[in-house]
Amino acid sequence: MKINRLLLLCLLLCSNLVLAAENTTIRLGVMASGTLAWELAAMKNEGLLENSDFRLETVAIANQQAGKVALQAGSVDMIVSDWIWTSSMRAEGHDYSFYPYSDTSGGLMVSGDSPIKTLADLKGKKLGIAGGELDKNWLLLQALGRQQGIDLNASVEKVYGAPPLLSQQLTSQRLDALLTYWQFAARLEAQGYRQLLSGEDLIRQLGIQESVPSLGYVFKQSWGEQHKAALQSFLQTAQTAKETLCTSEPAWQKILALTETDNAATQQQLRTRYCAGRVKQWGEAEQQAAARIYQWLHQLGDNKLTGKTDQLQPGTFWTSH
Question: Which residues form the signal peptide (predicted)?
Fold first, then answer.
């Protein structure tokens, strides 16, 4: 009788654990035009959400800033953002953590026949900068310029604006060069424009050999600890979806409408750049490299980008241990 009661108790507990896992809902902030939407569609199309340890609830957000507001307000559990913001928020007492999503981070674009071949050639030219004066790649580009004895901030005519508008200005020859996000750089490449430097090139030329992911999933560390099994399951599912889009032609064909272009060359270039951004290595060396980059950005951004602290905050990067 005692054994039967123990067995019944075990069955009830196990049943409750399964239900708890199945009922763990992850509220994910998603932009309609971002690549995260590609992966979510692949998860659904390829049946990756069936029998998963979580339920996914997507919440539409207009842009990255809206996502940050939603996360702070508690209306979503997770967004895609960067580790710089994550660290600065931790410095203010928030317990956000970052897990890498992509290490593709845009590039410096010029026309195919442009005479601009080096940073020195930008002197006196009109440069478009997506993301504003505190854009990470713009700050790093200035750092590289200083390393080469060039004050880019003083020697170029800067034009800040939204990426689509700046792309238009480049194609209509109202800009000589454009520092923009990777999706827009890929679209320009498909039209014959040349990438003078990628975000990865910038990091390498500044002396860092490790690939440092620029974007990642950001969530409260306390929430992650509370829902560890569901979170790990989601992260693995997302990785599988990304790999599927990069290795399966049928899977890629199903999400083509989300690329927002009918041009085959543009679709292919978007896929190429997206897949090149897969995170292949993420460990102590990459995290130390991120800490070095953070210190540069703190100095170059005059504290405006990173906040007052000059050190990447402990706990910025999520570990499942």
Answer: 1-20
131 with 137: CB under 8 angstroms? yes
- For residue range 185-196, list pLDDT tens digits in order: 999 999 999 999
- Please tell me the predicted confidence (pLDDT) of residue 241: 97
Sequential DSSP letters for 133-154: TT-HHHHHHHHHHHHTT--HHH
- pLDDT of 19 above 60: no
Residues ≥6 apart with Cβ < 8 Å to 137: 105, 106, 108, 131, 179, 199, 202
The pLDDT tens digits of the residues spanning 60-73 come to 999 889 999 999 99
- Model-level pTM? 0.89
CA atoms lying within 13 Å on the CB side of residue 177 = 28
Set out the domains of the chain in order of their start, with CATH numbers: 2-103+212-300 (3.40.190.10), 107-205 (3.40.190.10)
Distance from first CA to last CA of the chain, Å, rounded?
A: 40
- For residue 7 the two structure tokens come to 């067995």
Residues 199, 212: Cα–Cα separation, whole Å:
10
CA distance 291 to 83: 10
- Rg over CA atoms, the chain: 22
Six-digit token string for 111: 């026309």
